[in-house]
């Protein structure tokens, strides 16, 4: 599958006249470079060349730079990011476990999804190096540290004087990617966005959202369940909680949604899932 | 003599009603299945349409741990 994708990318790049590739992520830089056999620059290399844009943060704070696993063995990238950080005015704190010895933030291998406790331990092993805030050059690392409550910034947030904000939940993450894809499709390719319209009002309580994020249930899963409910009417009323509970199987997972009917729509109060089938 | 082992049993005690059929759910027999393993259980079931209810505590408790054990094999 990797070979097919690499081949596909090669062909598409050739159609575009084999332009220079600039990567925003050290892993992408390495992987694209290896698979395409061409020189791929990191966005930090380009910024070191052309200089900082207007509005770049004039940092006067001490911070530690966390080297991402994608830059392991890539001395050029590790040096280039440090140069960029210094240009921004950051007073860099170097720790013993940095560069190639940098620990894992807990995102790689999707550990943060497969085993939260282990991911937490991994992030802590990064954060215990110093009490200072962290600068990363990988968005996954920045996300992981922020979730652990440590002040962290992706270096591009400093370069462009902007903030990425609080870590989004899984539904927001997906939505952000969709928004990015749709705006690129529209602005660059002039294609219409593929938007799924909701034809009934649906509210999800804050409590339900938090629960869904913890249980890795997407809002699109919940929408699919409610659509199915509108067709089948299958639900149970729990007189204890006074909530209706319906379910729908999507792929190899059965999603259960706890809700109230409100007007022409619904308010979702909770959701859970399991993989077992029940007959 | 046949021994009927139930891996789980819960009595709805009249607290659950099927919305479509408007009748109370009763304790009924069901089978959980996952990765070629089957487990007989007793769950709240609608006596009319057969809707089987899986309580949240069960889904996140015993069912989850059995799923994980089977997946780790």
What do these coordinates show?
The complex is a heterodimer of chains A (279) and B (73). Chain A has 279 residues and is α/β, with parallel strands linked by helices. Chain A folds into 2 domains: 2-167, no CATH class; 202-274, 2-Layer Sandwich (YaeB-like fold), CATH 3.30.2310. Chain A has helices at 2-15, 26-36, 43-50, 75-87, 111-114, 116-127, 139-147, 155-159, 170-187, 206-214, 219-232; strands at residues 21-23, 40-42, 62-66, 91-93, 134-136, 152-154, 202-204, 236-238, 243-250, 253-262, 265-274, 277-278. In chain A, β8 (236-238) and β9 (243-250) form a beta hairpin. In chain A, α3 (43-50) packs across α4 (75-87). The longest helix of chain A is centred in the middle third of the chain and has 18 residues, at 170-187. Chain A is globular. Chain B has one domain (17-72). Chain B is 23% helix and 29% strand. Chain B has 1 helix and 3 strands; from the N terminus they run βββα. In chain B, a hairpin with a 2-residue loop joins β2 (26-34) and β3. The longest helix of chain B is centred in the last third of the chain and has 17 residues, at 56-72. Chain B is elongated. Chain B starts with 15 loop residues before the first strand and ends with a helix. The mean pLDDT of chain B is 88. At the A-B interface, β8, β9, β10, β11 and β12 of A face β1, β2, β3 and α1 of B.
Descriptors:
heterodimer, A: 279 residues, alpha/beta, 2 domains, 5-stranded mixed sheet, 4-stranded parallel sheet, 12 strands, B: 73 residues, alpha+beta, two-stranded antiparallel ribbon
By helix and strand content of chain A, what is the structural category?
Answer: alpha/beta
Main beta-sheet annotation of chain B: 2 strands, antiparallel
Whole-Å distance between the termini of chain A?
36 Å
Poorly predicted runs of chain A are none
Number of helices of chain B: 1
Report the structural category of chain B.
Answer: alpha+beta
Find the count of extended strands of chain A (DSSP E, 2+ residues): 12
Give the number of domains of chain A.
2
String of helices and strands of chain B: EEEH
- Using the alpha-carbon principal axes, give the shape of chain B: elongated
Backbone CA Rg of chain A: 23 Å
Fraction of residues of chain B in helices?
A: 10-25%
Mean pLDDT of chain A: 92
Spatial shape of chain A: globular
Quick one: which chains have the greatest interface?
A-B, 24 and 30 residues
Strand content of chain A: 15-25%
Point out poorly predicted stretches of chain B.
none
């Amino acid at each position: 599958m990797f070979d097919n994708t690499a081949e596909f990318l090669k062909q598409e790049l050739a159609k575009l006249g084999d332009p220079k590739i600039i990567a925003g992520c050290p892993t992408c830089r390495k992987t694209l470079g290896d698979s395409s056999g061409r020189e791929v620059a990191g966005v930090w290399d380009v910024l070191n060349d052309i200089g900082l844009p207007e509005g770049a943060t004039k940092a006067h704070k001490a911070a530690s730079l966390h080297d991402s696993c994608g830059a392991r063995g890539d001395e050029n990238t590790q040096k280039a990011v440090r140069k960029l950080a210094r240009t921004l005015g950051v007073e860099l704190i170097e720790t013993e476990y940095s560069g190639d010895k940098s620990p894992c933030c807990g995102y790689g291998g999707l550990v943060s999804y497969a085993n939260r406790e282990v991911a937490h331990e991994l992030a802590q092993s990064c954060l215990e190096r110093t009490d200072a805030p962290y600068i990363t050059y990988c968005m996954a690392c920045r996300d992981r540290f922020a979730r652990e409550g440590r002040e962290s910034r992706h270096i591009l947030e400093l370069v462009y004087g902007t903030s990425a904000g609080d870590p989004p939940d899984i539904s927001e993450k997906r939505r952000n990617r969709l928004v990015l894809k749709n705006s690129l499709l529209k602005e660059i390719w002039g294609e219409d966005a593929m938007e799924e319209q909701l034809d009934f009002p649906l509210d999800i309580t804050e409590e339900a959202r938090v629960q869904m994020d913890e249980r890795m249930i997407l809002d699109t899963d919940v929408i699919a369940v409610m659509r199915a409910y509108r067709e089948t009417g299958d639900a149970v009323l729990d007189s204890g909680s006074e909530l209706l509970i319906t379910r729908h199987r999507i792929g190899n997972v059965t999603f259960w949604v706890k809700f109230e009917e409100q007007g022409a729509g619904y308010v979702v109060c909770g959701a859970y899932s399991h993989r077992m089938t029940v007959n | 003599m046949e021994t009927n082992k139930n891996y789980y049993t819960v009595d709805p005690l009249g607290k659950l009603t099927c919305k479509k059929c408007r009748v109370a759910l009763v304790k009924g027999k069901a089978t959980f299945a996952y990765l070629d393993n089957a487990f007989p259980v007793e769950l709240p079931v609608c006596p009319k349409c057969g809707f089987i209810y899986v309580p949240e505590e069960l889904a996140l408790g015993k069912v989850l741990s059995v799923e994980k054990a089977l997946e780790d094999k």
